[in-house]
Amino acid sequence: MSQHALELCTLLVDDIYGELSSRVLSTLFRYGRLTVSQLSQKSLLPLRQLKHGLVVLIQQHLALHYTSPDDGVTYYEADWKSNYSLVRAGKVMRLVEERFGEAAGAVITNLLLQGHVRVGDLADAYGLTAAETRGNAKGGGASHGVNGRVKCGDAGIGAENQILTLGQLHCILHQMLHSGYITQVTEEQFWPLVDHRNHVERAVKREKFPGGVKGPKQKQELEEMVREKMRKSREEAHSKLEVNGVSRGVKRPAGDTTVRRGGKRVKLDYGFEIGHTKEEDNAEDTFVNENLVIRVNHEKFVVAFRNQEFVNLSEKRIGSTTALVYAELLRRLEARIDRCKDDLAPPGMPDGGEESPSISTLELSATLSKDIELINSIGKAPPIKVEAKVQNISASRRKRRRLEVGASVVGDASSDGDEDDAEDGNISAVDSGSDDHWGDEDFGIPALGSPLARDQKNRMAEIKRHLQLLAEDSYHFVRLVGNRGLGEWTVDFEALTKILKQVELEGIITERFDGIATRLVRVLTEKGKLDEKQVSNISLLKQKETRAALTSLYESGFIQLQEVPRDANRQPSRTIYLWYFDMERCRQLVLQDCYKAMARCLQRANTEKEKMRPLLAKAERTDVVGREDHYLSKIERTALQNWREKEERLLGQVARLDRLVGIFRDY
Amino acid sequence: MASSSIGSASADNSGLKKALYEKCLQAPANQLFNQHDLLDMGIIPGGNPSTLMQCVQALMDEGLAKVLIQPDGSAVWRMVKQEDANKYKILSPDEALIYSHIESCGREGIWTKNLKNKVNIHQSVLNRCIKSLESRNYIKAIKNVKYPTRKIYMLASLTPSEDITGGPWFTDSELDNEFISALLDAIEQFVTSKSFYRSTAVAEKPRKGKLSQADIQEALKNEFETPKLRHTKARSSLLPFPPGYKGYPTVQHVANWVSLAGITDVSLGENDIRQLLEVLCYDGRVEKATGGLAYKAVRRPAEGDEAGSGNGLTEAPCGRCPVFNLCEEGGPVSASGCEYFNTWLEI
């Protein structure tokens, strides 16, 4: 938590939920834990007003509260990380739209606006009192400018993607619950982490250590137990959901199922584990418990965003088709990763203390095969046939042929433009739905000899080659862990994240300084602490140049200097000076800069808006809306246009900065 | 009797001496001879050590042989060419002493301060001697890259060693940036041409194992004839080689290519090339492949691709703002009145 982060959070809340909430929030930020009366005192707000502001914050999980069982006093505390998540709202919506369709995007928008909501109420809002929801969405949407998708909620409900039936809504909710994008609200989620910890610790002490905790060993035991219990309570929220939350048996009305849409969703949701396919088929028939209270699970989205970053990185380094394969692999793994960084993981064991999940080529090909086929089918040469013939040719020639095959394949993909486009194309192709036998050929190779089997085998080999390419790259995007199912792959997220950070940092250094500085930083990264002379020797640069670059890097804090005195006097002349690069320090530095830059962008957007206030007031008048051409002069219209562009630019920049925050903080 | 015997002996010895000297000169230059080597030449009658001693002593007196003491205490000799020996004859004793010390340092040269310590002559005398030696063109002053301020002397006929000049990267004891960056660019281009699959020139590309000379020649021809064209055409379609590809260029390949391409007159060893490749690695232009044995180029996003240029922080004015630290609402600099934002938003 830093000054700039708090400034940013306050701005965000001010932007979205208004001045009252932001005032309460900034008071909480400034003073930390407060009771209601203290809060009222410090914020100079009357209690009645204060409660209005506070309730918004609590509803949105921006402020946490805990009633101490000892004295019965409720303390309030701001949760700055969930505050920060407000920035990501736009990205969250887009991701959901991409994966589950626009209707789901509308649902998640509503969830984001509501903070948390009971499933029944959500259904009511859609079904019985649709008008009210629309009003809400609009009200929220107008002030929801930050995410740059002002009309999302409104449009979602009104447009063709309107949710027609309760079944559809439940289907969407079930899918998102299952993939972890939304989660059940539990009481603990409203507690500050420290209180949660104390709460659990008290319980553990009462049960296991009635005589008090003695000695370091018991202390450690207690520590372990508390952590374990907190983990359990966290997992319970999810598992309870599996058992109780999703009740089966209520069939959706026959004939109403828009088969195409249903089929599409099942196929798109690759996040399901293999074993769940049976269940998955029934997904359309499941209803979510009406009394379940749900909210957006930002942690899970962070995992998805991280995957996107990795995919982009692999695309840049290897190629777009390989990136597609990688995207699929990561998406499959995503189902088994709940969060990027686990605070509750046992020490010394990252990634939740479990073995990092792996996936075999065979499993991967089950969901990926259509992609590859899609791309091949665009190419005019029948590469599959070429590939099949090749199998009898000697190894070296085969390699050459494969190259050619690969060429046509990859070339087609890259002509599709960026990865998103390709994916869209893929979705639409699947959507066209000529593949009713999808479920049959999912797993295992069909009997040898049939053309289908050969195709599939070739495809598998193709996929495997892409995976090998990923593994062989010096970034090691994947790692081979076993031979099951034509090779079992896992991803070393921690190492990859580190590379990602390094790449971004180097990018920033190159932009801020020049190529020489980046070279020096890389030298220092690899060699550790170095004397100025050694640095210039290794980097083949004049000592003068090196010194200038090192000094400017040092001044802005990207590299550090270590003094090693040669004698006890610590004379400067008798001291060795060693330069070194400390990634962690750099990361912090850049992160703070990011927060600050984001805050500045938002402030600037506000200033720009302030300048436009009279005109905006006119443009928003009810008689003007929809008839701008008639009521607004040409100058006014261009001014409005200019302002929109500026705002878009500034908010877009915030989103781009958020990407860096993700990389440097969350992944 | 005695005198005549000595006289005849010295007359004999002068013949023997010459024969011995000639024989030794036939051996490779700077070879060292010990007593046994000299006796084994079969010039000294009866292998008489005392005769040998006399001959060698005579040679040493004329400055044609030099005695050196091995670490184990045994003496060895080195023959000096006639013309080198003649130089000593015209020198004063001080000059000869200084000259011998400078000569003994060979291609490394000797710092005047060290020289003074060794010969133990007064500074002014030393300066005079050095001056006269220099004027006779026996010695020359050189510069050491490591210690540019030191005055270092070596024989005029020798070229300074790489330690002194700093190796191939130094021209006139200054690091030659242009030379290095040109080499880096050339090598990068070469490595890039070998690192990606291009659909245009598939068949001709050597893929496996070592490059033969003909391959290299051909590659060179391709490289130099149409570099621009290939460059622009290939950018968009750089495809990775399949996993397990072994054809990425090694240090040896690159070194071969550099020497054949005639980019430079400076002779570059494999170590120099390795150093260049390392620098390219640090620049993020190439990276190690095939378990560190070979190098491959790093794929760069196609030109005009947005992903290649900067990120969220450096694109915003704040990322490059010189007064970012001061920036604060109500402070001397603030977002609402920021000039950088003004220009950025006007674009």
From TrEMBL, chain A:
Residues 173-500 form the RNA polymerase III Rpc82 C -terminal domain. GO terms for biological process: DNA-templated transcription. One of its GO terms (cellular component) is RNA polymerase III complex. Residues 406-442 are annotated as: Disordered. DNA-dependent RNA polymerase catalyzes the transcription of DNA into RNA using the four ribonucleoside triphosphates as substrates. Specific core component of RNA polymerase III which synthesizes small RNAs, such as 5S rRNA and tRNAs. Keywords: DNA-directed RNA polymerase, Nucleus, Transcription. Belongs to the RNA polymerase beta chain family. Component of the RNA polymerase III (Pol III) complex consisting of 17 subunits. It is found in: Nucleus. The keyword Manganese does not apply. Pfam families: HTH_9, RNA_pol_Rpc82, WHD_POLR3C. PANTHER family: DNA-DIRECTED RNA POLYMERASE III SUBUNIT RPC3, RNA POLYMERASE III DNA DIRECTED -RELATED. It comes from the Eukaryota. Residues 7-63 form the RNA polymerase III subunit RPC82-related helix-turn-helix domain. This is DNA-directed RNA polymerase III subunit RPC3. One of its GO terms (molecular function) is single-stranded DNA binding. Residues 415-424 have a biased composition (Acidic residues). Residues 505-580 form the DNA-directed RNA polymerase III subunit RPC3 winged-helix domain.
UniProtKB/TrEMBL annotation, chain B:
GO terms for biological process: transcription by RNA polymerase III. One of its GO terms (cellular component) is cytoplasm. It is found in: Nucleus. Its main location: nucleus. The lineage of its organism: Eukaryota, Fungi, Dikarya, Ascomycota, Pezizomycotina. The keyword Transcription applies. Belongs to the eukaryotic RPC34/RPC39 RNA polymerase subunit family. Pfam families: RNA_pol_Rpc34. The keyword Lipid metabolism does not apply. Keywords: DNA-directed RNA polymerase, Nucleus, Transcription. This is DNA-directed RNA polymerase III subunit RPC6. DNA-dependent RNA polymerase catalyzes the transcription of DNA into RNA using the four ribonucleoside triphosphates as substrates. Specific peripheric component of RNA polymerase III which synthesizes small RNAs, such as 5S rRNA and tRNAs. InterPro entries: RNA_pol_Rpc34, RNA_pol_Rpc34-like, WH-like_DNA-bd_sf, WH_DNA-bd_sf.
